[in-house]
Amino acid sequence: MLGCGTVGREVARLLTEQSAELAARVGGPVRLVGVAVRRPRRHPQVPTELLTTDAAELVTRDGVDVVVEVIGGIEPARSLLLAALGAGRGVVTANKALLAECGPELYTAADTAGADLYFEAAVAGAIPLLRPLRESLAGDRITRVTGIVNGTTNFILSAMESSGAGYAETLEEASRLGYAEADPTTDVDGYDAASKAAILASLAFHTRVTSSDVYREGIADVSAADILAARVLGRTVKLLAICERVIDSAGSESVSARVYPAMIPRSHPLASVAGAYNAVFVEADAAGALMFYGQGAGGAPTASAVLGDLVAVARNRMAGGYGPRESAHADLPIRPMGDTSTSYHISLEVADRPGVLAQVALIFAEHQVSISAVRQTGHASDHTLTGDAGASLVIVTHAAPDAALRSTVDKIAGLDAVRDVVSVMRVEGEVT
User: Fold this and answer.
1) Are residues 312 and 347 in the same domain?
2) What is the pTM of this model?
């Protein structure tokens, strides 16, 4: 095993406590023979004879059949796993960043060596998700995968909704409670979710998708006003990872992979997912709609997924074979975000005078963006010197290319009658 942090400690514990059951499931004993760490003295719970600082030696050591990687990051994990695969070892990893960035290299190494590469724990913790996508739905055509795949951001957005507090104070509370890291950038800026979206899209659409292919926005700009506006519309705000098979008017297919905060209807299955939980909603031609829900992080839940992969790889070794390989036969192009069809919720502060709505509507028409709903509310003027009253204008659009929607907002922001573009948020779910 490479690494012995929160997840690694749980893996080692379960291997010890459930050794008899694991042996029965595999058909032979499963024994931990080495644990590579940087500072052995920090791991008193691991027998001294198992600890080593020489990870490179461990992954190619005689007698090692499977390498479990739980150190995270790109290097040295990448080099170590390539060495393990090159030596014919089966590999189990929970490293979503590595798979999202270097997946093709690892898949090729596994194919060349005829070795297993399993990574259920890389997305959504304990939730059995990747194997159903790769195996159970292999005979179906998946059209869309929409997920809440980051517990930290879901906890923050859920807390903002329940308390009415703003983003900054809710993030501080999440850090105090241990739901956010000391440096929460990877979570709140959407990098973690984007890595997972790349893995999901690759499996669902048989196409190699990397994290750089995923459009990404985080939650730092989500305000208490956005949460309230969603509630008024019967919606809630979630950070979504969306992977979609898109067919254009000419019949050509492409893959859209994106991460951003969006309003979804309260009737949507993902709307009720609260706190640090994860959930993924899968849509397929034959199977229809499927929902996967559970704990998406934490030592024990993630270790559960790691052990599941370990059992699968060990069974394959006992049988003298290996499991399903990477499937990238479709090789679909990645659809740019600007060409992806989305809907917007736009909140404006405007001058409360005749003709303003008409000016705004004209810009939408010029960009061929259809308006679904408009709500205008006048309010008392705080411009006491001019007496120029203001109003709040909320517009929800029908689906249109994202580039057209963005250009529309930019043009509207330049109108003299528009005092402020308060917020712009995408809408997913029922609005078309």
Assistant:
1) no
2) 0.93
Overall domain count for the chain: 3
C-beta atoms surrounding 287 within 10 Å:
15
- CA 430 to centroid of chain Cα atoms: 21
Q: Is residue 123 part of a domain?
A: no
Domain that holds residue 154: 130-295
Residue 197 in tokens: 């979206």
**270, 193: one domain:** yes
Q: Are residues 144 and 80 in the same domain?
A: no
- Residue 290 shares a structural domain with residue 304: no
Among 96, 196, 238, 411, the one annotated catalytic: 196
Residues 10 and 109 in one domain: yes
Instruction: Say yes or no: 289 and 306 in one domain.
Output: no
| Same-domain pairing of 27 and 10 | yes
Q: How far apart are CA 151 and CA 30, in angstroms?
A: 32
Residue 50 lies in a domain: yes
Question: What pLDDT tens digit does each residue of the chain (432 aa) get?
Answer: 999 999 999 999 999 999 999 999 999 999 999 999 999 999 999 999 999 999 999 999 999 999 999 999 999 999 999 999 999 999 999 999 999 999 999 999 999 999 999 999 999 988 999 999 999 999 999 999 999 999 999 999 999 999 999 999 999 999 998 888 889 999 999 999 999 999 999 999 999 999 999 999 999 999 999 999 999 889 999 999 999 999 998 999 999 999 999 999 999 999 999 999 999 999 999 999 999 999 888 889 999 999 999 999 999 999 999 898 889 999 999 999 999 999 999 999 999 888 999 999 999 999 999 999 998 887 644 544 445 678 999 999 999 999 999 999 999 999 999 999 999 999 998 644
Burial (CB count within 10 angstroms: exposed 0-12, middle 13-18, buried 19+), residue 350: buried
Cα gap 200→196, rounded to integer Å: 6
The answer to the question of residue 190 being in a domain is: yes
- Is 96 catalytic? The answer is no
Say if 327 falls within a structural domain: no
Nearest C-alpha neighbor of 293 from the set 283, 309, 282: 282
Rg of the Cα atoms in the chain: 25
Q: Which SS3 state, helix, strand or coil, does residue 240 take? A: strand
Q: Say if residues 151 and 193 touch (Cβ distance below 8 Å).
A: no
Residue 112 and residue 26 share a domain: yes
